[in-house]
Write a structure and sequence with these properties.
40% helix; four-stranded parallel beta sheet; 725 residues; eight-stranded mixed beta sheet; single chain; alpha/beta; binds zinc ion; 28 strands; globular
Length: 725
C-alpha cells in the first residue's frame, strides 16, 4: 500500500474540518444509527448509510482495523414525542398488518440487509437489536439515576437536562423548535420540559414491555444508542454517523446520557449526511415522493446506479434526485465498467509514474472529508487517459475498493443476455473475420432489434443490453427540464392546456371536446402527461398524431400538480392560456366568450367555477357570474403575460387543493380581478384525483396545502371581494 494521506473530516461538534486521529492507534470504532424496522428504507436513508460505508472503506484501505456497529431499532419510537405519547411504530405496523411486532421487525430487518447488499454497503460487524439489549439500557438508566442526572416519576425515568452543563454543544440547540402543526403537550411529570424520557412505564395492554426497577416499561430511543455504543465499542468511540435529522434531539441526548454516565467524551468525530431531495423537495412518506430500492429496480435500474449517483455529490450537501439524474448515473457506471473491460495488456514499467500521480490524487480527494465527486473525477481521468491498459486496470480496481461500484465483478454488461444473442454475436465475429462486412452489419441490426448492442474492442466483442432507461427518452423529470418561453412573443391566440395524472378516458373526452370547439380559433393544445397510468401515454400520442395542434409532454413520474402546470405555462405560446382539468367537458364555443371577458378592465383570471370567502379559511362556491375571490382550477383562463407578474406556481403544492386559490390570490394582489361566467358552455364530471385518493390521505394532503396557503394569505382579507362591498 502506498503512503496514506492523513484523513480530514468535518466534525459537526466543532464545525470544522479536523485531522483524524483514533482513540487507539491503528483501530477505529465506528457507530452508525441504523434503521427503525417497521417499513422499507427509502433511498434518502440509504444515502447516509452510503456515506458511512465510504468512510469505513477508506479507513480500511488505509490499513485501520475498523469495528463498525449499526443498531437495529426494533422498538419503534421514531421520535421522542411519539415515545412520550406511548406510540410505537413497530406495534402499529404489526397491528395494521395482522402480525406480531417480532415478525414485522424481522421482515423489515431482512429487507434492510438486502437493500444494503444491493448497494454494496459492507455489512456492519455488529447489528445489535434494541430488544435484545434492554438490560444494558436499564443498567445505564440506573447509573444515571445514581449519579444524579435522572429522576423517576410514576414508573418513568427522565434525564434532567439542567444537570448536564454541556447540553446543546452538538446542535447548539436546547429544545425543539416549534414545529408547525405539532403541539407537544407539557408533561406534568417533567421538572423541565427539556428533560427527556430514558424509560417509560408501559400502558395497559402494551405488547412490547420489559421488567425494570421502576415497573414494566420500555426504553427511550436515545438510550438505545448510548447503551449499545458502550456495550459494543466502549465508552469513547471514534466516529458516529447519521443523517442531519439525527443531530437534535437524538445525538444531543445521546451525548448527554453517555458523557453523564461515563464521565468522558463520548464521540470524537460526528459526521452527518445531508438530505436527499426528490424533485427539489425533502423526501417524506407524507409528501408522497419517496423511492425505495425496489422502485429503482422496477424501472430497470441497477441499485448500484444510485450508489454512483450519490458519489457525484459531497455527503454534506443536499442532493436532488430525479429519474433523469439516475439515468445519467446508470450510463456513467456502465461506461466506466466498459472502460475497465477494454483496458487489457501485460503489465509494463511504462506509464507507472503518471499512474502513481493519479493514484495519489484519488486517495487525497477521499481523505479530504470524503470528496467522492473529486475521487470519481480522478477515476474518469484514468479511464480516459492514454496510460497503458494494465496500469489503468490496476488503478481502477484499486479505486473500486472504496468506490464499491463492482467495476470488475460485473464487467461491462451488468445485464444477462440470452443465448440467441450470444450465438448471433459469434456469427457476426466470424463474418467479420472473413471480411463479410455487410452481412456482419445486418446481424448487428438484428441484435439491436432484440435490444442488445455489440461493441468491438481490442480484446474481442462485448455484448451490452440496451435497458429500458437507455432508450432515447424525451420524458421530463422535473419542470426544470423544459425551457421557459414566457418572455417570448405570442405565436397563437390561445394555448389550451390539460395536465392529467389519472383517467385515460376522461382525458380523451376532455381533449376531444375542446379541440373540436377550438377549430375556429388560432390555438395550440398542450397536454402534460403527469405520470399517467401504463398505456395511457401511448394512446395520447396517437391522438396527438392526428391533430398537429396537439403537443404532448410526458413526465416519467408524477411531478406534482403545480410542477405539471408549470411545464405547461413555460411551454405555452398563446396570448391567452386556458387550463382545463380532465374532468371537464367542453360543450360549446368557450373561446369567443373568454376573449370578451378577458378584455375587461383589470380582469386577471376568468373561469366557470369560483369561490368566495369571508375569512380566507372557509370558501363558498359562487353561484352567479361576476367577481369571486378565486377561480377554481377546473377551468382557468388568463393572459399568458399574467404569469410574468405572478411568477410560476409554487411547486410545494404537489396535491392540487388550494393551488388554484394561491394562483388567483397572486393575481389579485397584483391588482387584478378574478371573475366567473356561469354561461360558459362546459360541464364537470367526477373529479378523479379526488375520488382516487383515499380519504385519510386526502385530508392530510389537503391540510398541508391549507396551512401553506394560510401562511401566505391568511392575513390578506383586504383582498376579499366581501371587503369591497
Ligand atoms: Zn442512534
Amino acid at each position: 500500500m502506498q503512503q496514506a494521506t492523513p484523513i480530514r473530516v468535518y466534525n459537526t461538534l466543532t464545525r470544522r474540518k479536523e485531522d483524524f486521529s483514533p482513540v487507539e492507534p491503528g483501530r477505529v470504532k465506528m457507530y452508525t444509527c441504523g434503521p427503525t424496522v417497521y417499513r422499507y428504507a427509502h433511498i434518502g436513508n440509504l444515502r447516509s448509510y452510503l456515506m458511512a460505508d465510504w468512510l469505513r472503506r477508506l479507513l480500511e484501505a488505509q490499513g485501520y482495523r475498523v469495528k463498525h456497529v449499526k443498531n437495529i431499532t426494533d422498538v419503534g419510537h421514531m421520535r421522542q414525542d411519539m415515545l412520550e405519547r406511548g406510540e410505537d411504530k413497530v406495534i402499529s405496523a404489526a397491528l395494521a398488518e395482522g402480525k406480531t411486532p417480532e415478525q414485522i421487525a424481522a421482515h423489515y430487518t431482512e429487507a434492510f440487509m438486502a437493500d444494503e447488499a444491493k448497494l454494496n454497503i459492507l455489512p456492519a460487524h455488529e447489528f445489535p437489536r434494541a430488544t435484545t439489549n434492554v438490560t444494558e439500557m436499564v443498567d445505564l438508566t440506573k447509573m444515571l439515576i445514581d449519579r444524579g442526572y435522572a429522576y423517576t416519576a410514576e414508573g418513568n425515568v427522565y434525564f434532567e437536562v439542567g444537570r448536564f452543563a454541556d447540553y446543546g454543544k452538538l446542535s447548539r440547540q436546547q429544545s425543539a423548535g416549534l414545529e408547525e402543526g405539532v403541539r407537544v403537550e407539557a408533561d406534568p411529570l417533567k421538572h423541565d420540559q427539556r428533560d427527556f424520557a430514558l424509560w417509560k412505564a408501559a400502558e395497559e395492554g402494551r405488547m412490547l414491555k420489559w421488567p425494570s426497577p421502576w415497573g414494566d416499561g420500555f426504553p427511550g430511543w436515545h438510550i438505545e444508542c448510548s447503551a449499545m455504543a458502550a456495550k459494543y465499542l466502549g465508552p469513547e468511540i471514534d466516529f458516529h454517523t447519521g443523517g442531519v435529522d439525527n443531530i437534535f434531539p437524538h445525538h444531543e441526548d445521546e451525548i448527554a446520557q453517555s458523557e453523564a454516565a461515563f464521565g468522558r467524551r463520548h464521540v470524537r468525530y460526528w459526521m452527518h449526511g445531508q438530505h436527499l431531495l426528490v424533485d427539489g423537495l425533502k423526501m417524506a412518506k407524507s409528501t408522497g415522493n419517496t423511492y425505495e430500492v425496489s422502485d429503482l429496480e422496477k424501472r430497470g435500474f441497477e441499485p448500484l446506479a444510485f450508489r454512483y449517483l450519490c458519489a457525484t455529490a459531497r455527503y454534506g450537501t443536499r442532493l436532488n434526485f430525479t429519474i433523469r439524474s439516475l439515468r445519467a448515473a446508470q450510463k456513467g457506471l456502465l461506461r466506466l465498467r466498459e472502460k475497465l473491460s477494454e483496458a487489457g495488456g501485460r503489465a509494463t514499467k511504462k506509464g507507472a509514474k503518471g499512474g502513481e500521480k493519479l493514484r495519489g490524487e484519488f486517495w487525497s480527494a477521499l481523505a479530504d472529508d470524503l470528496s467522492l465527486p473529486r475521487a470519481l473525477a480522478v477515476a474518469w481521468r484514468v479511464a480516459r487517459s492514454r496510460l497503458p491498459g494494465a496500469v489503468k486496470r490496476e488503478l481502477l480496481m484499486d479505486f473500486d475498493r472504496v468506490l464499491g461500484f463492482d467495476l470488475v465483478a460485473r464487467g461491462p454488461s451488468a445485464f444477462a443476455f440470452p443465448i440467441e444473442v450470444e450465438a448471433l454475436a459469434r456469427e457476426r465475429t466470424e463474418l467479420r473475420r472473413r471480411k463479410a462486412y455487410p452481412e456482419a452489419d445486418a446481424i448487428r441490426e438484428r441484435i439491436r432489434g432484440m435490444r442488445y448492442e455489440v461493441r468491438d474492442a481490442k480484446g474481442g466483442t462485448a455484448i451490452i443490453a440496451i435497458p429500458v432507461w437507455a432508450e432515447p427518452d424525451p420524458a421530463i423529470s422535473s419542470s426544470g427540464d423544459v425551457d421557459s418561453h414566457l418572455s417570448e412573443p405570442d405565436r397563437v391566440d390561445f394555448t389550451i392546456g390539460i395536465v392529467a395524472r389519472r383517467g385515460c378516458e376522461e382525458l380523451e373526452r376532455c381533449l376531444t371536446s375542446v379541440s373540436q370547439w377550438a377549430n375556429g380559433v388560432s390555438a395550440e393544445i398542450i397536454v402534460v402527461d403527469n405520470g399517467l397510468e401504463e398505456g395511457c401515454g401511448a394512446r395520447l400520442d396517437q391522438l396527438a398524431a392526428k391533430d398537429k395542434r396537439v403537443h404532448v409532454y410526458h413526465a416519467d413520474h408524477f411531478l406534482g400538480s403545480a410542477a405539471g402546470l408549470n411545464v405547461l405555462l413555460k411551454q405555452a405560446r398563446g396570448h391567452y392560456v386556458v387550463t382545463l382539468d380532465s374532468s371537464v367537458e367542453v360543450k360549446g364555443d368557450i373561446f369567443a366568450r373568454l376573449r370578451e371577458v378577458l378584455v375587461g378592465p383589470r380582469i386577471g383570471i376568468v373561469g366557470r367555477w369560483g369561490v368566495t370567502s369571508e375569512d380566507l379559511r372557509s370558501f363558498e362556491e359562487a353561484e352567479t357570474s361576476g367577481d369571486v375571490d378565486a377561480v377554481e382550477g377546473y377551468l382557468m383562463a388568463f393572459r399568458r403575460d399574467l404569469v410574468n407578474e405572478t411568477g410560476l406556481l409554487d411547486e410545494k403544492y404537489r396535491f392540487y387543493r388550494h393551488l388554484d386559490l394561491d394562483f388567483s390570490l397572486a393575481a389579485r394582489t397584483s391588482g387584478y380581478r378574478a371573475v366567473i361566467d356561469t354561461r360558459l358552455p362546459v360541464v364537470r364530471h367526477e373529479h378523479l384525483e379526488w375520488a382516487a385518493t383515499p380519504e385519510e390521505e386526502r385530508d392530510r394532503l389537503s391540510k398541508r396545502n391549507f396551512y401553506r396557503f394560510l401562511r401566505k394569505w391568511g392575513e390578506r382579507s383586504d383582498l376579499l371581494v366581501a371587503q369591497a362591498r
